[in-house]
């Protein structure tokens, strides 16, 4: 499944040429190695957590190489602490994008930030994919400006894993907050991109796609949902997915659809509601299991089952929302991710890079959709999305 250990077991090579340690943190460029561009300054827990995640990922998959972006004075000691000199190329960047920075402001004056530098490495084909814990709106805005949208994509989307009863143990849901708007053609694009993501990240040959609505009946929902319903039904053969129709909120963790499509406004609310509910239930369970001596004894007897349950719902296992619809792959790690969570995001990024996900995504979108807008229109939409992103 999409945790760090499982993704390592999916076939990423563990062989790599070994090199002498370089005290300046300049890693050699091994031919054929997957290179991950890391914004080291974006997380709530600071660069020690992100570099710790790099260290975990490097131990799990020694073939990986990293370009790490941020202040040299801050990152050099951490590279030495985690013994990453052999696999890390350090790129100095003076500033970091904060959670309080407005995306539009970052687009105008953020060229010297670690986030901008990390995306630039993907744009220049130095790295296969970028990973950041930083400000989601700013990351999407910079990614759109520097990487540009795929032909046929009007609005990029953020796709995330949702724990489920499905065959892969996870469902893919999008959009999770890249853009609060989505017309019927956008929702069809999300279905095609979600299909490609489910095939490459979860190994599903023909994903089932559901359209989130207030009911499963065809006559329910807004006009754009009804139009998208018709479009998805017509596109399922060419798009390589099975359209199961409308789904409701209770189907998010169910075995009804592998890909759940909605607009970013609804998707982000669903995501935050799910996270809050999971935390609340966890707190109630902890209180119940420690409320008395008998409860504690019962918890001790059930320790094995409780550990398995905790491991399954651990949000670090599914850490990493993927920006879909760009000429380059960007993985958005949760801002509060610790080293283990950040390593899971890196593992997801590496798996997508090795699978050639970007090219497969572009081919699937082009299969059923017309070409996108010109560069001027893309710039205007990047500004629009930067203001509406969460």
User: Could you tell me how far the N terminus lies from the C terminus, measured between alpha carbons in angstroms?
Assistant: 27 Å
Biggest β-sheet, characterized? 11 strands, mixed
Q: Beta-strand level of the residues, as a percent range?
A: 5-15%
Oligomer: single chain
Could you state the order of secondary-structure elements as H and E?
HEHEHEHHEHEEHEHEEHHHEEHHH
Low-confidence stretches: 3-25, 371-390
**Helical amount:** 40-55%
Order of strands side by side in the largest beta sheet? 3-2-1-4-11-10-5-6-9-7-8
Write down the Rg.
21 Å
Shape: globular
Class from helix and strand fractions: alpha/beta
Global mean pLDDT: 82
Strand tally is: 11
Question: Helical element count?
Answer: 14
Question: What does it look like?
Answer:
The chain is of the alpha/beta class. Helices cover 47% and strands 14% of the residues. Strands 3-2-1-4-11-10-5-6-9-7-8 form an eleven-stranded mixed β-sheet, sandwiched between helices. A hairpin with a 6-residue loop joins strand 5 (157-163) and strand 6 (170-174). Helix 2 (47-60) crosses helix 12 (339-354) and helix 4 packs across helix 6 (136-147). The longest helix has 26 residues, at 264-289.
């Amino acid at each position: 499944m999409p945790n760090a250990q499982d993704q390592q077991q999916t076939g990423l090579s563990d062989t790599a040429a070994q090199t002498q340690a370089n005290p300046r943190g300049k890693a050699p460029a091994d031919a054929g190695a997957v290179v991950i561009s890391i914004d080291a300054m974006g997380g709530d827990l600071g660069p020690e957590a992100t570099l710790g995640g790099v260290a975990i990922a490097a131990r799990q998959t020694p073939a990986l190489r990293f370009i790490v972006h941020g202040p040299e004075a801050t990152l050099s000691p951490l590279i030495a602490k985690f013994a990453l000199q052999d696999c890390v190329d350090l790129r100095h960047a003076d500033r970091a994008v904060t959670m309080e920075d407005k995306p539009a402001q970052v687009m105008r004056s953020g060229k010297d930030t670690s986030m901008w530098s990390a995306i630039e490495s993907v744009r220049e084909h130095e790295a296969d994919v970028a990973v950041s814990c930083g400000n989601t709106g700013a990351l999407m805005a910079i990614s759109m400006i520097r990487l540009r949208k795929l032909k046929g994509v009007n609005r990029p989307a953020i796709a995330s894993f949702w724990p489920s009863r499905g065959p892969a143990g996870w469902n893919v849901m999008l959009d999770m907050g890249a853009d609060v708007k989505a017309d019927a053609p956008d929702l069809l694009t999300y279905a095609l991109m979600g299909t490609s993501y489910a095939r490459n990240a979860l190994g599903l040959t023909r994903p089932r796609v559901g359209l989130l609505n207030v009911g499963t009946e065809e006559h329910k929902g807004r006009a754009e949902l009804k139009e998208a319903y018709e479009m998805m039904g017509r596109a399922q053969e060419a798009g390589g997915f099975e359209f199961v129709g409308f789904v409701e909120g209770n189907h998010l963790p169910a075995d009804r659809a592998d890909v759940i499509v909605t607009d970013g406004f609804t998707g982000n609310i669903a995501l935050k509601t799910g996270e809050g509910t999971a935390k609340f239930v966890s707190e109630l369970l902890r209180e119940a299991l420690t409320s008395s001596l008998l409860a504690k004894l019962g918890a001790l007897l059930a320790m094995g089952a409780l550990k398995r349950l905790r491991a399954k719902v651990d949000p670090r296992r599914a850490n990493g929302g993927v920006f879909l619809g760009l000429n380059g792959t960007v993985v958005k790690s949760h801002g509060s991710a610790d080293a283990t969570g950040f390593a899971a995001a890196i593992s997801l990024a590496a798996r997508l890079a090795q699978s050639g996900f970007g090219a497969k995504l572009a081919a699937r979108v082009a299969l059923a959709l017309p070409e996108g807008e010109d560069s001027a229109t893309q710039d205007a939409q990047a500004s629009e999305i930067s203001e509406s992103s969460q």
